[in-house]
């Protein structure tokens, strides 16, 4: 409380400890008022931390240490970034032989992000001369706090960095993006796949940038697809790889409006959506047929109980993700990819063919109706409805879809 601060209190507990000749750092950090004293700019405390900052990383109180280091006191942060030995000690936390619990990693992440915001240039200069930091961060990307560091690094705070474009170009010239995308491989866990996908998705949403240009290149798209279609049985790798593809097809996508909005210095700034890289489209179009094959459920034996009975098999998150990428392809307004979906893939024809079979069934009767209930019409399936409604919506402005307007409108009427 305010009456506990040094400026207003005659007997500060922290001052009492500092007055001792043989006090220990553990004793000082164990004092509950230390954070308030530090924020109140206690000169004696700041001088102590500045003179012996190295000891803060080897004590038993990582939480208190992280709070002191992130009080945004320039003298403390300056001492940290200007002494390479202290920076080496800080980033030694990433070494494989260290304990990387969620709690400790959170404290480490808090300190690094504070340095990103307050001491950007010295921190970037340190990382440039210590490239192993990238490898160590990517190896721990399965931890949420480490993922947050990488997302900040690749441009989530692009309006905070004073030399943002230079940093982005340096990151694009490094192999950071390759290492992150390779974490989508089948050998990694679900948590690693999910966090690894967030970083390239952030890059795509912050286009245009050197990193986004690199990510949308044909060689990189091929690298991403290599993980998506490497093993049909690996649904986790497939789902999160498709999330990256959707981000590439929908840069700066807004759920509220067709314009991208962000706040900068208290003002709302609107930007038109960024057009999709033609190289991305050219690489994705030949693989659209592979997306269609993913919808084949003949070999899927999973059972999903529903109010209508058992679905054998269930739709599955990976097929829902395929539906999302088809919608993103339609929304991209790229003539080449829309034409491929409508003609080569015969998208509308396939939907109309499904409509002729109003009951979810086949030769082996995968859907078993519950007693006293009718099985659902296929036209009521959410993913079919969404694709059909999107076709009708886009037909008013897209000449290619206009030629199929009668069929698209008929589909919409059937789904009502």
Automatic annotation (TrEMBL):
InterPro entries on file: SAPS (IPR007587)
PANTHER family, sorted: SIT4 PHOSPHATASE-ASSOCIATED FAMILY PROTEIN, SIT4 YEAST -ASSOCIATING PROTEIN-RELATED
Lineage of the organism: Eukaryota, Viridiplantae, Streptophyta, Embryophyta, Tracheophyta
Name of the protein: (rape) hypothetical protein
GO molecular function: protein phosphatase binding
Organism: Brassica napus (Rape)
Domain of life the protein comes from: Eukaryota
Protein family: Belongs to the SAPS family.
